[in-house]
Structures are given as C-alpha cells and as structure tokens.
Amino acid sequence: MSNANSWTHYWQQGHLESCIDNQSPDNNEITALWQVFANNLRKDAVVVDLATGNGSVIKKLHAIVPNCHYVGIDYATIAPRWAEQYQHIEFIGNTSIDNIPFETQSVDAITSQFGFEYGLSQQSISELARILKPKGLLQLVVHHSESEIVEPAKLRLQEIEWLIAPNSIVDSLGGFVAETISIAELEGIGKAYLAEHENKLTQSISGQCFSVINQVIQLVENGMATSAAELFERLSASMQQEQKRLSQLISVAQTAHAITEFVASLNDAQLSVESQVIRSNQGNPLAWLIKGYKHG
After folding, report:
1. What are the structural domain ranges in the chain?
2. Residue 73, φ and ψ in degrees, nearest 5
3. For 2-146+253-294, which CATH class?
4. Cα atoms in the 13 Å half-sphere on the side-chain side of 143
5. What Cα–Cα distance (Å) separates residue 220 from each residue in 207, 208, 250?
C-alpha cells in the first residue's frame, strides 16, 4: 500500500489536523502563527496550500481573510466537505508538489503545515519559486525531529509494530479466522502480549485492537465466519495504513542540520527565508517555522 493511500485513508476518516488535536494548546500555538500570516495577505490574494490534507491551514486563513482565492493541493485523494459551500476555495488531490498546476508567478502566497517536507526535493523547491509572484509570501510549518509530535509518534509506531509482528496477536487472529489456530492458542498469545508489554500499551491502540479482536471471536463463535474474516481484514489493513503513516511522519521530521540545508536551498532559489523553532507551552520543540518571501 502506498503512502498516498495511507494518507487518503486518514483524511477520509474526517481528520482536520494531521497530528495535533484541534483542542490541544499546541494547536493554539500554531494557529496563532497563521493568524499573523493572514494579517499580511491582500484581500484578493491567491493562496496555495501544499500537502493540504483536509485544509486545516485554509480553514484558519479563511476565517480571517475570507475573500482570498484558496487552493489546497495534496498527493492523496481529498475532498474536504467543510469547504463545499465556498466557491473561492478549491482542492486538487492526486497531485505532486513537484509539478504544481499553476502558471509561473501567479500565486501571492504559499503555505504548508506538516506537509511540504513529505515531498521535499530540489524540484519541489524550484516549483515554489516558479509559481510565487515577486514579493509573494511563503510560510511552512515543518516537523521537528525532536518535537512533542514526533516522539509520541515513535511510541505509537512501536506499539503497532508489536501488534502486527509475525506470530503476534493480529497475525494470530488471522490464523484463528482461518481455523489454523484454536481459541485457546489465541488467548494464550494475547495474554503473553499483554504480559510482555505491560505498562507500555495504550487504550487508543492496543485497547481498540483487542476490542476488535473480541468482536471477531464473537462472530466466529456465532457461525458468522465471512463477517469475521471481513472484520479481520479491515483491522489488519487499518493497522498497516497507520504503520505507514507514522513511519513516514517520523522519517520526514527535520533535524537542525537538515533544516539549515533546506533553508539554504530555498534562499538559493530566489527566496528570502529564515527558520525558527516553534515551542510548546512547556518550552519543548513543537515544529520548525520557515517564513519569508520571493525576491523581486
């Protein structure tokens, strides 16, 4: 399954943010940055949000500057329902940021939140410079390798990999559905899993997984083998999708050295940008902020 499919699955579940809860104080920190950015937009500006997902950044900006023409672009398949009522907001899915469908020097502002780094390349940087008008604005919020987002993601990924490892509980559930493992064997594997990883498991991952496992067992015991197999396949696919999504999130997070090179590449492409660390209320790294404009 491709990374695009993993993100398509994620966005189709209705998430607005990719990694921060809407009610989190950390989300408030980032929202404040977009409020400042919005105050510098012309009322009729063309704003392109790259790797937009379900349009979190556009929604924030639109609340402050509603008359801009907003376009969200993403490599995944997207169709945010919240924006359907607005004629001046559009979304383009299945599109790489290596080939942004805009004319040269046609865009007033480019934004991205936890997205551009997924497609970071010399070509995508060149595309930023190509479509942005002289004096056009750029603001990117980028994953920090030591952030309060990435570190928990590593723990969630580890827990998922425990669950889906060969001969672990999810794999064994497939054997139970296929009648190659008995209920007693499955229960033994489940108890061993809980004992081995005691105090390291979460309700949101292992707890929900075991809840689905119990549903599968009940379906089998009630003679509903087909329904049990379908539910198992959905569980397995969902776990694999989340594994891919988290793995990619962790891999694209930028170190201080990487962000220095990123900024240098942007400046070499006729942009004038600088970077800084966005910090949480506790003072810990939350993300990198890259902001600036195009020369001209």
Report:
1. 2-146+253-294, 149-250
2. -125, 135
3. alpha beta
4. 24
5. 20, 19, 37
Closest-CA residue to 80 (of 144, 149, 10, 155): 10
Q: Are 55 and 83 in contact (CB under 8 A)?
A: yes
Structural tokens at position 153: 């993601």
Distance in angstroms (rounded) separating the CA atoms of residues 203 and 190: 15
- Tell me how far CA of residue 123 lies from CA of 11, 75, 120, 186, 244, in angstroms: 26, 15, 8, 50, 24
- pTM value is 0.90
pLDDT at 1: 39
Residues of the chain with pLDDT under 50: 1
Q: Which residue has the tokens 């809860």?
A: 21
The candidate with the shortest Cα–Cα distance to 109, out of 66, 50, 162, 165, is 50
**pLDDT for position 3:** 65
**pLDDT number for residue 24:** 61
Close Cβ partners of 125 (under 8 Å, ≥ 6 residues apart): 265, 266, 269
In the 8-state DSSP scheme, what is residue 82?
Answer: G
Q: What is the DSSP string of 182-226?
A: -HHHHHHHHHHHHHHTTTS--IIIIIHHHHHHHHHHHHHHTT-HH
